[in-house]
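Obj.: predict assembly geometry.
Materials: sequence records (below).
Method: joint structure prediction, all chains together.
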Amino acid sequence: MKNQLKVLRAMRNWSQAELGEHLDVSRQAVNAIETGKYDPSLPLAFKISRLFGQPIQEIFDDGFDGGPNV
Amino acid sequence: MFDPTEGQNTGRRSALWMFLASIGIVAIAGFIAGFMAQHQRSGDAVYKGAAIAALAAAVLAIIGLGYWTWRNASAQKVHGEDLTRRERLNRYILAGCIGLGGIMGLGIALAEDDGGPAGMSMFSNSPLPTSFALAFAFVLVAIVPAITWYWHRYAVDEMEESAYREGTYYAFYAYAIGAPLWWILWRGGLVSAPDGIVIYYITIMVCGVVWMWKKYR
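Observations (raw structure tokens):
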């Protein structure tokens, strides 16, 4: 899943390890989420959303284009 | 500090070297155990100069690799990046488990004397002293589950948990297909009889390889 995590992290001038510390996950987990290799759980997505003060759908993009299929 | 080039900086090289070093420790421990067993069988009461030198070199190699692994495991930074709390704890636990496994492997190798080749005691089915078997069983039943619970509860994050789950998924199918395959081929007279401990090692290895691949890819 595409996401804005790297951009948001850059805006705070945080390293992956620093963001990992804020989210209580490893640096590998931050890297895997940023590169789209791992999709976070809903609780972690909410944690990310709260940390950056943005709605989940602003941070994560599931590719849904607004068509009839939900 | 933010580094836009850090995307692939996952510390996998460090983890790979630690993995290879731990295999080296186990292999050298097996060599020592086999060497001592061979010496015992030869009937010599004392070790001669060359034998002492070989054993000393092997022990020094284990100490060196062990120290290097511990230094790596306890490093506060990887490629200039701080480790998070979970990563540090994870590394300490893994290094501790490698040490515990090495001690247990060496103990088994020294406790048995089946005349097999050095370093193969991990795959042996020869008898062990009852007291040693009970001590080993206690470690497996009481200590390993406690370490595992602590590791899952405090060291592993959800991404590693997911990688681990995927590893067990592949390992289950390796077992579910591999074990009856071996059994059928044995009944057809094509291979030797199925060996439970070899099947166990293959299952664990499949789990470990997939887990590491998912974590560090």
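Conclusions so far: Chain B touches chain A at residues 1-4, 6-11, 78, 81-87, 90, 157-160, 162, 215-217 (CB under 8 Å).
To do: check interface contacts against the pulldown list.
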